[in-house]
């Protein structure tokens, strides 16, 4: 029983480990996907719409996943899903480097822990879509495991 408690405490510490205020050039990020229209599981592609900024904020929400095990990454998305009552369908993994190559920036934005936002989106609709297409092309799609 002591062993199990130790494993659980280690898992919790890892899941909620504080992240530095600066984001590394090759740091891994994930965008949780709650709409089945935002990805194609058959081809393993992410739709650009999944990465477009929220109209109200001009930001795209992502989570910093370096150092997390796969189960912990999915648990963060599942926690958000529970809070919003949305279905978690998939996630799109990318790096800060791909964000910078799309001429955008990543900025830490807590709470919650490990949360960040993609900022610097252009005002022009076509330019925003072009950046989202660049990000989508750089993403690795992972479909959510069955509950």
What is the topological layout?
Blueprint: H1 2-15, E1 28-33, E2 39-40, E3 45-46, E4 60-64, H2 70-84, E5 90-95, H3 96-101, E6 105-108, E7 115-119, H4 125-138, E8 140-143
Keywords:
disordered N terminus, 33% helix, 4 helices, alpha+beta, 147 residues
How many domains is the backbone divided into?
1
As laid out across the biggest beta sheet, the strand order is 6-7-4-1-5-8
Q: Please give the count of helices.
A: 4
Q: Which of globular, elongated, flat, extended, rod-shaped describes the shape?
A: globular
Distance between the termini: 26 Å
Q: How many strands, what sense, and barrel or not for the largest sheet?
A: 6 strands, antiparallel
The proportion of residues in beta strands is 15-25%
Task: Describe it.
With 147 residues, the protein is of the alpha+beta class. The chain contains four helices and eight strands; from the N terminus they run αββββαβαββαβ. The strands form two sheets. Strands 6-7-4-1-5-8 form a six-stranded antiparallel beta sheet.
Q: How would you summarize what this structure contains?
A:
By secondary structure, this protein is of the alpha+beta class. It has helices at about 1-15, 70-85, 95-100, 125-140, and strands at about 30-35, 40, 45, 60-65, 90-95, 105-110, 115-120, 140-145.
């Amino acid at each position: 029983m002591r062993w199990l408690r130790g494993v659980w405490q280690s898992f919790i510490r890892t899941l909620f480990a504080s992240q530095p205020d600066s984001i590394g050039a090759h740091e891994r990020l994930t965008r949780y996907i709650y709409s089945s229209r935002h990805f194609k599981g058959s081809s393993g592609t992410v739709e650009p719409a999944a990465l477009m900024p929220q109209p109200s904020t001009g930001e795209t929400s992502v989570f910093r996943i370096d150092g997390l095990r796969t189960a912990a990454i999915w648990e963060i998305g599942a926690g958000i899903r529970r809070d919003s009552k949305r279905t978690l369908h998939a996630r799109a993994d990318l790096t800060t480097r791909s964000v910078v190559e799309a001429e955008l920036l990543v900025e830490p934005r807590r709470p919650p822990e490990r949360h960040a936002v993609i900022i610097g989106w252009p005002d022009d609709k076509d330019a925003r879509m072009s950046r989202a297409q660049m990000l989508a092309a750089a993403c690795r799609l992972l479909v959510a495991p069955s509950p």
